[in-house]
Amino acid sequence: MKGLSSAQAVARLAAEGPNALPAAGRHGTLAIALGVLREPMFLLLLAATGIYLLLGDVHEALVLGASIAGVIAITITQERKAERALEALRDLSSPRAMVLRDGERKRIAGRDVVRGDLLILAEGDRVPADARLLGVTDLSADESLLTGESLPVAKRAGDTVYSGTLLTRGLGRAEVTATGPRSEFGRIGASLATLEPGKTSLERETARIVRLVAAFAVLLSLALVVVFGVSRGDWLGGALGGLTLAMSILPEEFPVVLTVFLALGAWRISRHGVLTRRMAAIEMLGAATVLCVDKTGTLTENRMRVVDTPQAVVDVAALACEVDLFDPMEKAIVGAAGAEAAAVRGGWRLERDYPFGDDFLAVCHAWRSPEGLLRVAIKGAPETVLPLCGRMDAMAEVERAAESGLRLLAVAQCDWQGEPPDDPRRYAFRFAGFVRLADPLRASVPEAVAQCRRAGIRVVMITGDFPGTALNIARQAGIDAGEALSGDEVAALDDAALAAAVRRVNVFARVRPEQKLRLVQAYRAAGEVVAMTGDGVNDAPALKAAHIGVAMGKRGTDVAREAAALVLLEDDFGSIVHTVRLGRRIYENIRNAMRYLVSVHVPIAGMAFLPVALGGPLFLYPVHVVFLEFVIDPACTLVYEAERTEAGAMKRPPRDPQEPLFNLRMLASSVALGLTMLAAVFAAYWWTLDTGRSEAAARTIAFAAIVLSNLALLFATRSRTRTVLATLGEPNAALWTITFGALAALGAAIYVPAAAAIFRFAPLGGAELAVAAGAGLAGMAWVEVLKLTGRAQ
Fold first, then answer.
1. I want to staple 616 with a disulfide (CB 3.0 to 4.6 A). Which of 461, 540, 611, 639 is the partner?
2. By mean pLDDT, which of 189-193, 293-297, 534-538 is the weakest?
């Protein structure tokens, strides 16, 4: 069977549509614009526009109306950028399917499966579409998603497997009969497309901060309105001042920062071969203290080679390999087998398949010849196969080979009269020998492990391989491998003894999936933040239990991918380490952006409040706040999101996951920075008035100082420890674009008469500009001094 041709598949995909449920629609431009209309900042601008109309100042009202269009444009740009990143991730995360196209096996996205496709199904797969089974090998499916029945259902040739159900056992081939909304799941499950993912802990924390600050802004603004109205009898002027103060305090950028950073962060991580399925994983990456990784394919190249093995042994082992090959080890064995094994696999009938299991670490096949002869072959773990042959003396050879990093599979065979038994242990096996397999260490692994050590992250190997082989590979990788603990030894330990063991042991061998879960729980109980890799159906509980579950994209099952927070598109340990680096970068950039936002609002809010509180005129009007927002909004997302990973990011210990982003130290230092900026700006304002200059001149100098201090703050908060001069040469196109754009806009606002009239500015001379620049930079000085003395945090 060759399956559909590529041309047929393309034609059916075009005619019948993708194999996907109707998704929640992408936000259109109008929908995003309507969303802006519900934002507090828009409502405040609308209220300010109404007040100007009541005051008869139509010109000022038109300016604010135009600024509303600008706010909408910026919001649409930011949302579009985040949506494009998320759409790219959705394409990557589409369920995969193995199909026959043009007579060849191809791994395609599930949404590209079409009616008539021939599916190759295996244990752990999520069935991509409704399909009629053409052939099966011990196949069972979990259909609880559709029926609510918890027990797997045995499947035979001719039965239907349904889209969305899970194969819990066996192999099969099937022809697709219905896709997308026409499938059984599509008819009853379309409503699932509208479900939204839950908020991350950072998003919840930020939402609480926004609510608190917004409540404070409302109370302070109302107080300003009352004081202004009662003391001066100008209630409309007081309302205008109150609205300006509320606009200057309101931290509407906080949730925008998280949305953009997490979406673009996940997109950046995907470019390095790692798919983010849950945004919360990005937050936890920088806090990981233990990486629990598999050996085969993660630390090693997963390029199995048969070495130093007699041909007769390889031929027997090939008969114990699956008919539909997908495991690299079995591909290597069958590839090395001779013509006799190929003839049996091609011309004999597979009478009985005894699959690999937790209590039977081997694969056994019974083949029926055309003459009725039954030949049985078994390959697997030496501790399973050798007792069936009465050859436990051969274990010494296994231990010797393991010390040199080779993997040994014991191989046996027998002939059988009559029907095959239910239990393969009843066969009278004859020992054939060992298949020796070599799988070299990835060249990048030793340096990646060394990076983890420098970053305070402990690497632990958890494998199903023989202890000696595991120890050899661990030592080559640079893992501290004094001893290996076997799965049986783990099972024999109580919780207290296991807690003590995980503190000293870094290599666990012959581990079964349920023991992986117990190890994850032991590390979590010890206070570690655990990242765990897995690929099989039974790895799903451990992947879910880990703080960061990492599924293998190439050899992993769909179940493992769905349980994991991250999926490696290339099953490479180096990808995990690089993702940790990116996770640290993303969190640090979010932290720097939030520090900037907290600091920058202090002088703006202070200058909206202090002049009025001290009996002076209104200093800031809504148009001034809008000008500053046009600098702050793109700066807090574009500039900080584009910052590269600091050189020392992987030389610091993991961060404490219990420490909130808005902790006392961060808030105190940010507010202190904002207060020194406010003090410098207010000093320049007061000095200008004290020297007899006009109110317009004082406003111009102080506002220019706010803009310049804003830009200086951008440069100063790019790094918590390195000075502005140290970071100046590092590329960041957004930083320079915003800097020059803000300076040009400020110049136009001051020196273009029509704009100066709107902002109530007066032209400044060179000396006055120097005062504004000095005030703008003065608030930053102490931060740079702390960096130079090594005391910055």
1. 611
2. 189-193
Contact 176, 117 (CB under 8 A): yes
pLDDT at position 792 is 65
Residue recorded with tokens 């003590």: 500
Q: Per-residue confidence at 71, pLDDT binned at 50, 70, 90?
A: low
pLDDT, residue 32, reads 59
- Among 293, 319, 292, 314, residue whose Cα is nearest residue 304: 314
pLDDT attached to residue 474 = 92
Confidence of residue 533 (pLDDT cuts 50, 70, 90): confident
| Residue 30 pLDDT > 90 | no
DSSP label at 420?
P
Separation CA 88–CA 82 (nearest Å): 10
Q: How far, in whole angstroms, is CA 660 from its chain's centroid?
A: 20
State whether the Cα torsion 122-124-125-127 is positive or negative: positive
Residue with tokens 């398949």: 353
Residue indicated by tokens 């950039």: 589
**pLDDT band, very low/low/confident/very high, at 379 (cuts 50, 70, 90):** very high
Main-chain dihedrals φ then ψ at residue 569, nearest 5 degrees: -70, -30
Residue 747 pLDDT exceeds 90: yes
Kindly state the tokens that stand for 210: 């926004």
Instruction: List Cα–Cα distances, 487 to 106, 464, 491, 531, in angstroms.
Output: 36, 8, 6, 20
The full length of the chain comes to 793
How wide is the angle at C-alpha 757 spanned by C-alphas 609 and 747, nearest 5°?
A: 85
Range 543-572 average pLDDT: 78
294 is catalytic: yes
| Active-site hit among 125, 130, 142, 294 | 294
Backbone angles phi, psi at 445, to 5 degrees: -65, -45
Residues 589, 641 contacting (CB under 8 angstroms): yes
Nearest one of 277, 201, 73 to 590, comparing CA atoms: 201
Which residues, including other chains, have CB under 8 Å from residue 208's CB and lie 6 or more apart? none
**How many whole angstroms separate alpha carbon 401 and alpha carbon 399?**
5
Using 50, 70 and 90 to split pLDDT, how confident is the model at 310?
very high
Residue 657: strand pairing partners: none
Between CA 323 and CA 321 the distance in angstroms is 7
116 touches 12 (CB < 8 A):
yes
In DSSP notation, 510-562 reads S--HHHHHHHHHHHHHTT--EEEEE-SGGGHHHHHHSSEEEEETTT--HHHHH
* Residue 447, number of CB atoms within 10 A of its CB: 12
Classify burial at 347, counting beta carbons within 10 Å of its beta carbon; exposed 0-12, middle 13-18, buried 19 or more.
exposed
Mean pLDDT of 535-562: 78
Q: In this structure, are residues 662 and 594 in contact, taking their beta carbons and an 8 Å threshold?
A: yes
Q: Tokens 């304002």 appear where?
A: 685
At CA 613, angle to CA 610 and CA 619, rounded to 5? 50
Q: DSSP 3-state assignment of 308?
A: coil
pLDDT at residue 195 in the model: 41
Q: What is the pLDDT of residue 701?
A: 95
User: Mean pLDDT across the chain, nearest whole number?
Assistant: 84
How far apart are the C-alpha atoms of 3 and 176, rounded to whole Å?
Answer: 11
pLDDT digits (tens, 9 = 90+) for 73-92: 666 665 666 566 555 555 55
Is residue 742's pLDDT more than 90? yes
* Amino acid present at 244: T
Q: What is the pTM of this model?
A: 0.74
Distance separating alpha carbons of residues 782 and 325, to the nearest angstrom = 66
Work out the angle at residue 600's Cα, subtended by the Cα atoms of residues 598 and 604, and round it to the nearest 5 degrees.
Answer: 115
Lowest mean pLDDT segment, chosen from 465-469, 470-474, 695-699, 745-749: 465-469
The Cβ-side half-sphere exposure at 470, using a 13 Å CA radius, reads 25
The residue to which tokens 């006392």 are assigned: 664
CA distances from 26 to 87, 157, 793 (A): 9, 41, 41
Q: Token match 């404070």: residue?
A: 216
